[in-house]
Amino acid sequence: MTPPHSRRTVLRAGAASGIGAVLATEILGAVRDTAFAVPTASSRAALATSTACTTLTKEETQGPFWVDEKLERSDIRTDTEGTTGTQAGVPLTLTINLQDAGASCAPQAGAYVDIWHANNQGAYSDVSGSGNPDNVGQNWLRGYQVSDANGSVTFTTVMPGWYTSRTIHIHFRVRLTLSDSSTVNFTSQLYFDDTINSAVLATSGYKSEANRDTYNSGDQLYDATLQVPLTGDTTSGYAGSFTANLDFGDDSSTSTSSSSTDQTVSATLVSAVAKRRSRRRLVVVRLNAGERVTGRVRLVRHDTVLAHRRWGWLAQGAHTLRVKVPRKVAHGDAKVLVNLADASGNTWYAVRRVHVPR
Fold it and tell me: Which residues does the UniProt record annotate as the domain Intradiol ring-cleavage dioxygenases (predicted)?
């Protein structure tokens, strides 16, 4: 499937309108990768009209810095890869409560809730470029939890910093596989009162507010209904709770149909091996793409990413993707994770076991 506009076209349009490259990329909402084969239509279904709750939570773009780290944890401040320490900043305890608008606002248990956000310098982990230094291989300020019987998850983190063209915010994603195997996939963003944001930015360690170019009032994605009320102060930290009203549907309203809507990415994994070629060790993945897709390949051992590489748009057809294995990686068994995404946001995921040679 060919997207109606290229990434370059969107970025140019954003720059021309004064939005800036970062915000234009956020509006584009490029999918990074996910272990859930979820069509964008499912997230739209989660916003279907419901009379059970007065207002459904607004869906917003996931932005360009989503990475599916698959880290189940409540305290997201640390880097499990061990390359950096705990992220500094004003403490924040954030609770997200899920309510099923299609079931009289009953708590929704069993949903996967991810959050991710910038650190006190306005940078994201496990990405590079678009204003970020090379933080690839680090995973601080990312994680997920599964909602409990009360529909709640609570994260320990820090107040985010700012970066160009965006007000201060936290991304969150809700995913749930229903009884008929269809999947709800909802993304949005959370905001804070700018008086509190300014107080946080005035504390030690945060990038100065002096050059901050975007506040809530000037952010094109900001929505007051997504603002989290906070209690506390910059010394002891803040705590806040946000309730997300989503329509998780039921078997009759969310069952899949035989319509022509694009439901999955058309792709086939031919092979994935780790081999030595001359003095280099490589992961070599061969696949057939039935449509235009973006891709990511990771070499993983015991939940540690040993090597990885991303690709922009790959044309329909056969492809050979190569990832260099660093010298410091020990030989032995590992897994290769392959993620693809098409222009509609549909995703595809495959895993293969490999043996890394000496």
Answer: 77-193
CATH number at residue 192: 2.60.130.10
Euclidean distance between CA atoms 55 and 95, whole angstroms: 19
Are 273 and 212 contained in the same domain? Answer: no
Element holding 322 (H helix, E strand): strand 317-324
What domain count does the chain have? Answer: 2
* Burial of 76 (C-beta count, 10 Å sphere; 0-12/13-18/19+): buried
pLDDT tens track for 58-98: 999 888 899 988 899 999 999 987 777 899 999 999 999 99
Domain assignment of residue 311, given as a range: 267-356
Yes or no: say if 151 and 69 are a contact pair by the CB < 8 Å rule: no
Are 46 and 186 contacting, i.e. CB atoms less than 8 angstroms apart? yes
Q: What is the pLDDT of residues 2-16, one digit of tens each?
A: 333 333 333 333 444
